[in-house]
Write a structure and sequence with these properties.
Helices cover 69% and strands 0% of the residues. The protein is an all-alpha fold. Among the domains are: 98 residues, Serine Threonine Protein Phosphatase 5, Tetratricopeptide repeat (Alpha Horseshoe); 109 residues, Alpha Horseshoe (Serine Threonine Protein Phosphatase 5, Tetratricopeptide repeat), CATH 1.25.40.10. The protein is elongated.
């Protein structure tokens, strides 16, 4: 569930007047509607009147757990509240469950379970477990990602089975089934949420949960239906307007989105929150009015100061980048990463950072590192590979072919069976960057795996020509011969390339190896394709009339592998880094 980030009791941030809510239930109603500021103010007022109001303290902690954007801030703030209350209320069972919830978020599983069971034992009567404590235990295990959803189901189901008719219990049980089923508990959750509405037809929170259920199933018609049902039952149900804003926002219907944003803000009155300007900044950004987006987001940052949330800096970095203000884009990008929310950071944030570095003098190493950091966040292999490809293309565009190749090597590591293009692109980038050793290693692999493809032999030919520019060692000769053999399978298509390679071989044998027979052989291949070329005929005549050279030991020439089928994994030598990482 998307949450509006709330920070309480900051001067200039909010204005609440005429607040009359006097009961815990009224505070809960505000919380379920995501009117977090009013909810917190309600509970604070109750606690001020009675510092040991256990229900108010518990629900204030739950408000913190819902409203703080960063998990560590949620935990810290809620822990502080509940730890103090554990002392002042002599370990009240409800507060004890709240502490267990904090500990679950801290991955202290055994400590949390002990508190849950102790609280249940302390409140158990002959009629069974206390409903308030059962609901709190269920909520504690549903809220964190590390909760024990089966445990929550067992406790809540036991309450339902004995005849309890409490709409909150049913909604919690539906949530537990959804989380426990990891997408397969939708049918059961649907029936349970509907039961909550049978108990209390005006419980808009159940409609919201039904909308979120169908959102997970991408059944947008029913999402819209249940959100609209929630607002019909409660025209001030803020949470539904918030979801409707994003529903239309992501469908690019910005006018309707703005209408629901206005309703969302109006539904919270008398609460006024400067951070609602962030939502308007998002609308400006989506409309590509980046000046407006910057103005509104900066108004939030000005009021919030050091408490500005990371997502505001993200928007400011992106909007400034989009409008070409790269200096401010970098400033806000740096702010974002200095305060980044571990629960809300994506590979896109790293791509934006890399793009900004590319415009502000960032080194290729910085850009490479940024893409590597972003790739870690993608848990889906194909997404991770696609992200690294974007980085490789960005480095290619910047002209740093070596770092481009390094990223392409990381792609090869991720693939169980790299294709021709994968190996070629990495090898070619090293070649373009003049790292011929690594390029050679990769094209060794390419020619082993795809011996009948001309590209690998072409690149080996080019690489060894660069390594032996004087032809003295004859390094390129075996690759030229193999490349020419493949080219000659289609002389019409490859005429130009054949002429070039045959000419190189003729030159080597005539001038370096002093083998006029071989030289004439390649010149005749050229003449066959270009019979009217008098220069070729002239060179053949010169060689034919020249005396035979003195007998000499021919230069040692490396013979390329003559594989005709894909080698087994062991056939690929691991003497270089590049060879080692390519899996067959």
């Amino acid at each position: 569930m998307k949450k509006t980030t709330i920070t309480f009791l900051i001067s200039g941030l909010l204005l609440i007047s005429g607040l009359k809510a006097q009961t815990v239930q009224e505070g809960k109603n505000h919380l379920f509607a995501q009117r977090y500021i009013i909810a917190a103010a309600n509970f604070d007022k109750l606690i001020a009147a009675n510092p040991n109001n256990i229900d108010a303290i518990y629900w204030l902690g739950q408000t913190y757990m819902e409203s703080e954007e960063i998990m560590s801030a949620r935990i810290a703030k809620t822990r502080q509240l509940y730890e103090k209350a554990m002392q002042t209320t002599n370990g009240a069972p409800l507060i004890m469950v709240g502490m267990g919830q904090v500990e679950l978020n801290e991955n202290k599983f055994s400590d949390a379970r002990q508190k849950f069971e102790t609280a249940l034992t302390m409140t158990r009567t002959k009629k069974g477990d206390d409903l308030t404590i059962l609901n709190a235990v269920g909520r504690a295990n549903i809220q964190p990602k590390t909760g024990d959803f089966k445990y929550a189901i067992d406790k809540l189901q036991a309450s339902v089975d004995k005849g309890e008719k409490n709409e909150e219990t049913f909604v919690l049980l539906g949530d537990a089934f959804r989380k426990a089923g990891q997408g397969t508990g939708g049918s059961e959750a649907f029936k349970i949420y509907k039961k909550a509405l049978e108990i209390n037809p005006n419980f808009s929170y159940a409609n919201l949960r039904l909308a979120k259920l169908f959102e997970s199933q991408k059944n947008w018609e029913l999402v819209l239906q249940y959100l609209n049902d929630a607002t019909k039952k409660d025209p001030k149900y803020s949470a539904a307007y918030y979801e409707l804003f994003y529903y239309y926002f992501y469908r690019l219907d910005f006018n309707t989105a703005e209408t629901h944003l206005q309703k969302y803000i109006e539904s919270k009155l008398p609460e006024k929150d400067v951070q609602d300007e962030y939502l308007y900044a998002q609308l400006c950004w989506a409309r590509k009015d980046f000046n407006c987006a910057v103005t509104k987001a900066e108004s939030v940052a000005k009021v919030m100061g050091n408490l500005t949330k990371p997502k505001v800096y993200r928007l400011l970095a992106d909007a400034n980048f989009q409008k070409g203000d790269f200096v401010n884009a970098k400033r806000y990008s740096d702010d974002f990463f200095a305060k980044k929310n571990p629960d809300d950071i994506t590979s896109y944030d790293y791509k934006l950072k890399a793009d900004i570095l590319g415009k502000t003098g960032g080194t290729p190493e910085e850009i490479y590192t940024t893409y590597m950091q972003g790739a870690v966040l993608d848990t889906v292999l194909t997404s991770k590979i696609d992200f690294l490809k974007q980085g490789a293309e960005a480095l290619k565009a910047s002209g740093d072919r070596i770092k481009e190749a390094d990223l392409r090597i990381e792609i090869l590591k991720l693939k169980t069976n790299p294709g021709q293009r994968d190996i070629f692109d990495a090898g070619f980038a090293y070649y373009q960057g003049k790292n011929y050793t690594k390029a050679d290693s990769l094209f060794d692999i390419y020619t082993l795996r795809f011996p009948e493809e001309s590209f690998g032999w072409q690149m080996q030919y080019n690489i060894h020509r660069s390594l032996d520019s004087t032809m003295e060692r004859g390094d390129a000769i075996p690759y030229a011969v193999k490349y020419l053999t493949i080219l000659e399978k289609d002389t019409a298509k490859n005429k130009s390339s054949i002429m070039g390679v045959a000419g190189y071989l003729a030159q080597y044998y005539a001038n370096v190896a002093k083998d006029k027979v071989k030289a004439i052989e390649y010149l005749k291949k050229m003449l066959a394709l270009d019979p009217s070329n008098t220069d070729i005929q002239k060179n053949i005549s010169i060689l034919e009339k020249s005396p035979a050279p003195k007998t000499q030991v021919p230069p040692k020439v490396k013979t390329p592998p003559a594989k005709t089928s894909k080698p087994k994994p062991t056939a690929v030598k691991s003497k270089t880094v590049a060879k080692a990482i390519v899996k067959n």
